[in-house]
Write a structure and sequence with these properties.
- By secondary structure, this protein is α+β, with helices and mostly antiparallel strands.
- α2 crosses α3.
- A hairpin with a 4-residue loop joins β5 and β6.
- It folds into 3 domains: 34 residues, no CATH class; 222 residues, no CATH class; 94 residues, no CATH class.
- The radius of gyration is 45 Å and the shape is globular.
Length: 425
């Protein structure tokens, strides 16, 4: 979106350009005229899909006007043009219609009321929920077109955070009816039901003016529409609330400060109002069948199973057990190995330099070698021993069990041992 700035700023039309101001936008918006002619869009075959989209968008725009009429008394409590945002929500309602064809889909807000609940009329200014930080309790009666709302006590800086530049405030509540709209083939446009008129526009009521520095006492507001009950169910009852600020004027009169405040759509009731009470208990009562009488023998006591079968209400028994903890990790053990080598085999490995080692020295060398090659084994597994040996047997050392016996090459690669005689074990 282009904006106009500088010393030549203007609003209005200039040749092919149009400049204007829009609420919620700081600068001047500039648009350029152009595009296909209106006659071409309405008649050309290439714009058939465009006409379908335009038709449905027109329906959303018209339906949005009925929503704004339902909060007529507080719609000025906004800091931007929120009509386009309401149209966007109604567009989502329209896309949920699976019965109509493209260009003629219905907009049944009464079936999708939750999409519009909580809608705020402010963007930059503080929202209503940030000013009044307390729950609001209300009741809506679709049959009598009435509402009751209980406003809590508001305390400054506790659950009420107003703008500091306004001395007084009050809360205003509106109640109105929003009709569903459908495509009318003869008129080729979206229209509300025939019964809809201005009598179904919103009504409002307000609290007394209260000082912003003190807050407000607990208050209850009630509204009831005098219009007749619509003949069908293609409509939605909408409840909205807003906060207005006031300033003192001549003779002590309080006048509303224009374009300051906040509002929101509090609740809507459509074709299917929210159920009240405990739904689960209601379903049990509706589906409960009267149990047939069971003959009981006085001489034979009833067993627990028989008492459960005879009970008209299903019994539920809870059994609590503790989960057994098991250690999935296998126990690890460290094994040591020793080898007894025959004298003949060892004598061939004596170095030619004539250097010999005593049995004690040889055994210590061998013990260090065995400790270096010892590995952590998992009990119950099979495989080759990690310590190589040949021509001898695996013997025990006090306190260390034998795992297995086998023959593998000896000595280990990269090292030799010399010993005058095998150590005594």
């Amino acid at each position: 979106m282009p904006f106009l700035e500088g010393p030549f700023a203007f609003t209005g039309k200039l040749d092919m350009f149009s400049a204007y101001r829009m609420r919620g936008v700081d600068g001047i918006v500039v648009r350029r005229k152009g595009g296909p002619s209106g006659e071409k869009v309405k008649t050309a075959e290439s714009f058939k899909n465009t006409r379908h989209t335009m038709s449905e968008f027109g329906g959303c725009s018209r339906h949005g006007s009925y929503v704004r009429k339902a909060l007529l008394q507080i719609r000025h409590l906004a800091d931007y043009n929120f009509g386009s945002d309401i149209n966007s929500i109604l567009r989502q309602v329209q896309l949920r219609d699976g019965t109509g064809e493209w260009g003629r889909r219905r907009i049944t807000l009464s079936e999708h009321t939750r999409l519009l609940e909580g809608f705020s009329t402010t963007q930059k200014a503080p929202a209503f929920d940030s000013i009044v930080r307390a729950p609001l309790y209300y009741t809506l009666d679709r049959q009598t077109r009435s509402a009751r709302i209980d406003l809590p006590e508001l305390l400054r800086d506790i659950n009420y955070f107003p703008q500091n530049n306004h001395a007084m405030f009050r809360l205003t509540v509106t109640l109105g009816i929003v009709p569903d709209v459908t495509y009318d083939v003869p008129s080729k446009e979206y229209l509300p039901p025939a019964w809809y008129s201005r009598a179904y526009n919103s009504i409002s009521t307000s609290t007394e003016w209260n000082p912003s520095l003190e807050g407000m006492a607990t208050t209850t507001l009630e509204l009831a529409m005098g219009a007749a009950l619509p003949p069908d169910d293609a409509w939605t009852l909408m409840l909205s609330i807003g906060i207005e600020y006031g300033a003192f004027r001549e003779n002590g009169n309080i006048k509303e400060v224009p374009r300051f405040g906040a509002a929101k759509i509090l609740a809507l009731v459509g074709k299917e109002p929210a159920p009240e009470g405990n739904v689960w208990e209601e379903e049990i009562d509706n589906g409960k069948e009267e149990a047939a009488p069971v003959a009981v023998n006085a001489e034979t006591p009833e067993t627990p199973e028989e008492r459960l079968e005879a009970s008209p209400v299903p019994a539920v028994r809870y059994i609590y057990t503790t989960k057994e903890t098991r250690d999935e990790r296998p126990a690890a053990r460290v094994y040591g190995y020793s080898i007894s080598v025959p004298v003949g085999t060892v004598s061939e490995a004596v170095p030619t330099s004539g250097a010999t080692s005593s049995p004690t020295v040889c055994w210590r060398k061998f013990e260090r070698r065995a400790s270096a090659l010892a590995r952590e084994l998992v009990p119950g597994t099979a495989g080759n021993l990690p310590l190589p040996y040949a021509g001898g047997k695996l013997v025990t050392i006090p306190g260390i069990p034998i795992v297995s016996v086998g023959d593998v090459p000896f000595p280990p690669a990269g090292g030799t041992y010399s010993c005058a005689r095998p150590p005594d074990v």
